[in-house]
Design brief:
mainly alpha, flat
Length: 213
């Protein structure tokens, strides 16, 4: 079963009628009036957004923006949990980046604008982020990092992030990122070694095939 569709369904069941009305209002610029009139549930609205490619399992920004507008922290936590699960299936380099994002969101605070400029995020994007999340500092930080990663694409690397933090004299945060990366590397190495040992043990316990008569 598709985990993202399960997530959307669970969110739909948790929406009140007034919250659904608010979501329909917020989606007026993206969804036609005729389609919105036919929306009777969160599932209906999410289905329209999926069909219009406004939303998918790799692009959850709109969903997050809508939930922030509703101030539904419980649903935002579900989205965070889903994204954390998706991160666990990402390549190791990308997992390191997402782990660094969490650390930066927790520790950078109001210095995020300086960091964003160091990462070459345009001022127009920074202004748009402030308008998008006017009273949510954590989401401002996270969105600026998402914009940087989306713009840099394959060039987005943890080393760039650490260098930008140090250029902004956010050395404590840079140290935390590097320490977390080292710990994650050791953990991955230990898990890989343990997995190899288990396979070797299984092979040694497997009886040899019988000779055919």
């Amino acid at each position: 079963m598709d985990e993202f569709l399960v997530l959307l369904h669970s969110m739909s069941t948790g929406l009140s009628s007034s919250e659904l009305t608010d979501l329909k209002f917020l989606c007026q610029g993206r969804v036609s009036k005729r389609k919105l009139e036919r929306v009777q549930s969160g599932v209906d609205l999410f289905t329209v957004l999926l069909e219009q490619n406004e939303l998918d399992r790799e692009r959850t920004e709109l969903l997050r923006e809508l939930l922030v507008s509703l101030r539904r922290q419980d649903l935002l936590r579900r989205l965070d949990e889903y994204e954390a699960g998706a991160t666990g299936r990402a390549p190791p380099e990308e997992q390191d980046l997402y782990a660094a994002f969490d650390i930066i969101c927790e520790h950078v605070g109001k210095d995020w604008r300086r960091l964003a400029r160091q990462l070459k995020v345009p001022d127009t994007k920074i202004d748009a982020i402030e308008v998008k999340y006017p009273r949510n500092l954590t989401e401002q930080v996270r969105e600026s990092l998402r914009v940087w990663k989306s713009t840099a694409q394959e060039d987005a690397a943890l080393s760039q992030l650490v260098a930008a933090l140090r250029a902004c004299r956010l050395n404590l945060v840079a140290d935390l990122v590097e320490e977390d990366q080292q710990a994650r590397g050791l953990q991955n190495e230990s898990e890989s070694r343990s997995s190899s040992m288990s396979l070797m043990s299984w092979d040694s316990d497997t009886p040899p095939p019988r000779a055919s008569s």
